[in-house]
Amino acid sequence: MWSRQRGGLKPLRCGVEQLRCRRREREAALRKARREQQLVSKRLLRDEALEEAEEGCVAMIFGEAEIQQFLRLAQRGTEEKEREGALVSLRRGLQRPETQQTFIRLEGSIRTLVGLLTSNQALLQLEAARCLHELSHSEQSAVVEACLPATSYLLTYLSGHSSDFIELCLYTLGNLIVESEAVRRQLLPQGIVPALAACIQSPHLTVLEALGYALSQLLQAKEAPEKIIPSVLGSTLPQHMLQLLQPGPKLNLGVAVEFAWCLHYIICSQVNNALLITQGALSTLGLLLLDLAGAVQRTEDAGLELLACPVLRCLSNLLTEAAAEAVGGQLQLRDERVVAALFILLQFLLQKQPSLLPEGLWLLNNLTANSPSFCTSLLSLDLIEPLLHLLSVSNVVSVLVLTVLCNVAEKGPAYCQRLWPGPLLSSLLDTLAFSDTEVVGQSLELLQLLFLYQPGAAQAFLQQSGLQALQRHEEVAQLQDRVHALQQTALHG
Question: How many CB atoms within 10 Å of residue 233?
Answer without folding.
Answer: 18
